[in-house]
Amino acid sequence: MFFLYLNVGGTRYRLKEQTIWNLNDNSLLYKFSKADHCKRVLMCDAYFEAENEYFFERPAYLFNLIFDYYITGMVTLPADLPRERVAEEFRYWQINVEPLNEQSADQGGPLEVDEFVEAVCCLNCRRNAQAFLDLPRSGILAFVYHALMAGLIVISVLTLALRAESSAKGDRRMALLPNRNSNDGSIIGAVEFWIMLLFALDLIGRFCVHPSKGCFLRNPLAVIDVFTVVSYIFWASLSRLAHDNYAWTQMLVLFMSVRVLKLARYCSHMRRMASALLMSRSSILSAFLLIFVGGTMFSFAFLWTEAGQPNTPFASYYFAMWYSVQTMTTIGYNNVAPVTFAGRVNSTCLGLYGIACIACTISSVVRKYLQLSEQDAHNQQINYSYIKKSPSMHNLDQISSLS
Predict the structure, then answer these.
(1) Domain count, the chain
(2) Nearest to 66, CA basis, from 24, 119, 102
(3) What are the tens digits of pLDDT across the range 369-385?
(4) What CATH number does residue 189 fall under?
(5) CA neighbor of 207 nearest in space, from 186, 221, 222, 192
(6) Among the four 11, 42, 61, 203, which has the fewest Cβ within 10 Å?
(7) Where in the sequence is the domain holding 176, given as residue range(s)?
(8) pLDDT digits over 50-63, tens only?
């Protein structure tokens, strides 16, 4: 995670670049954080190389409002500050408020101070709603709401498990939505319907209050939420319109199992593990390549050592490859085994080769996971100590919003 070090009017500030990117895509600081070092030097008034700070010759007492805006998404206007100067400072930093921008474009004139304050109040309401829907620790009601949503996710997974179990036993009554003239599975169907309705409303609400709709749709957690709702809609429609099309509905039930990943919203370890796997994708792809190469070579070795032996299971390359893969991955179904001494030595070398490949891949993923854990803990400590020392922020509620 990267920080942006600023010096505004002699006062030092430090902001996470991700905080700037999440709030407003058109602000001056957003463009400044996206630029390289050479462009940043041209955009600011001076650069202090020893402190790695970019200097802006603006009043620090007004930038405190800007800094507070980026951290909390809210603006508190003191009574002793002229509102005209506050509006001018927001214009300088190119902080756009959506309702105000639309009204300004229609009128074609300069921004009025009263309209500015009204737009900021609207933005504060939206930010509060976003904190309520996205941050479980933003308040007691938010914690209760997210605990309820997590419980509903578990219940929806259990209902899906009941459908899959009934389908495995050959009972189609629970695998499909009930007919209009039947009461089979009506309770589970009703429970799942209302849960999915709440999921859809939660998704729509978070989409409406998010400041950047494009960033929201690119968020993997939002993609999971959309896929959960859309897969249920397709499954319910197919069950109603083509009740006898059992194979397609069962395939959709498989896709609907993605809803269990919604729990990642409430578990930082799941998100961290997903990030570690994504960062280790080169190591994982290399492990697949090594398994394929090793499996191919050892498969030919098995065909050579076991050729012509009575009762040998290694009669084809594909079977030898299957045995090689399950041995390298330490699965070992124990349904086949080489019959010759050379084949057993080959199998031992194959197992050691597979253990080495998997151990290297797991160590890479664990190393990335530990780095992310240490980085998160370090960032939380920096944020707390910086807010505690900052002269512009003394509210403990703002500390909890960053933790």
Answers:
(1) 3
(2) 24
(3) 898 888 777 655 544 44
(4) 1.20.120
(5) 222
(6) 42
(7) 136-266
(8) 778 888 888 888 88
